Amino acid sequence: MARAGSGTQASGAGEGGGAAVWLLAVGQTVVYAGSYYAFPALLPELEAATGWSKATLALGPSLAFLIMASLTVVTGRLVDRGLGGEMLVWGPVLAALGVAGMALAPTPAVWLAAWALVGVAQAGCLYETCFAFLTRRLGGGARAAITRVTLVAGFAGTLAFPLGHWVGERLGGQGGLAVFVGVTLLAMPCNLWAVRSLRRRERAGAAPVPAPSGVLAAALRRPAFWALVACFGLIWLNHGVLITYVLELFADRGAGPAMAATAAACIGPSQVAGRLLFMLGEARAGNARATLIALGGVVAASAVLWLAGLAPVLVFGFALAQGAGAGLMSILRPVLIAEILGREGFGTISGAVAMSPILASAVAPALGAWMLVAGGPVAVYAACLAMALTGWTIAALLLRFRAGEERG
């Protein structure tokens, strides 16, 4: 395959990538459902099938995220060199091999090895690479394309949790993972067609332009870089803990298995609803205000989940607020990085910033398991609320300071 994602804006960028962007959206949906959400969707069945503890099982996704974080700067540079398309095409195949290894794992050591493979794959084929690829290809028109991708990919959890509930009951945890292998593989043909289509839109003679030397070092000297790192890290740590143990936490709040699975499945549509509201009101809200609203939704979600012990139906309120807030942040994260830190060397800088939320996602399963053992669900509710409040405060201070700089 020829290189995809050159440094110039495509001649068809005004159209936002057309059908190619929608196919990338489908590719992101199935790869997230198959390799990311499969674990929380099948966690109760995996415990029963393997006899391993939550902490042992959680080491798998933690390892995958650690590997993913260690590779994000590398994959970002590969995007800057025009190789984002190749990673999007072949990453899902590698991820599917990893999920197959998880399904067949007879020991924790094999389980971890399979997750390590998934981590390598996810570094090259999830949101970070997709968004950097689109930003590089479409320039200022990338936000509309990113929004389209996230509108569709927001249904990954909606696909994974009911499917996991259904196959888990019939095939068990590891048998259910075998089904998710097929789900993950569906991303490959979708991304292949999309990347080829976007490559055909390139201007004749356009060549990939690598990021200027020193662009990352310059970004690391800016306080705004570290503020973004801290904010995104805290929010994704909150989200990772809550999503990994969502079924167990819902059960603690008094929700039955069917209600818990239904409410968890609502997180995806809530992500889509939040993004649609942003699209409808973005001219009035702006990115800064939308960021504070989105982070406020995450704060509200943690508070509502804690209160759901008084009325289990409030787990649906959690799903609405968490899905809308975190879903909107998925759009705003690359936009804020580009606006605050610039588009020059975007893939490299975005990859560096992404280390924080990815590391947070790596820590989240193990941290959640430790908190559940040490302090029970109440410790999780309190810690996640504190994470969300701190993230919102950092973002508010950063955006206020930036607004003052622009006025000055």
TrEMBL record:
Q: Which InterPro entries match?
A: MFS, MFS_trans_sf
Q: What SUPFAM superfamilies does this protein map onto?
A: MFS general substrate transporter (SSF103473)
Question: Which residue ranges run through the membrane?
Answer: 21-43, 55-75, 87-105, 111-134, 146-167, 173-194, 225-247, 259-278, 290-308, 314-336, 348-372, 378-399
Q: Keywords in UniProt for this one?
A: Membrane, Transmembrane, Transmembrane helix
Any Pfam family hit? MFS_1
Protein name in the entry: MFS transporter
Q: Per the UniProt entry, what species is this protein from, by scientific name?
A: Tabrizicola soli
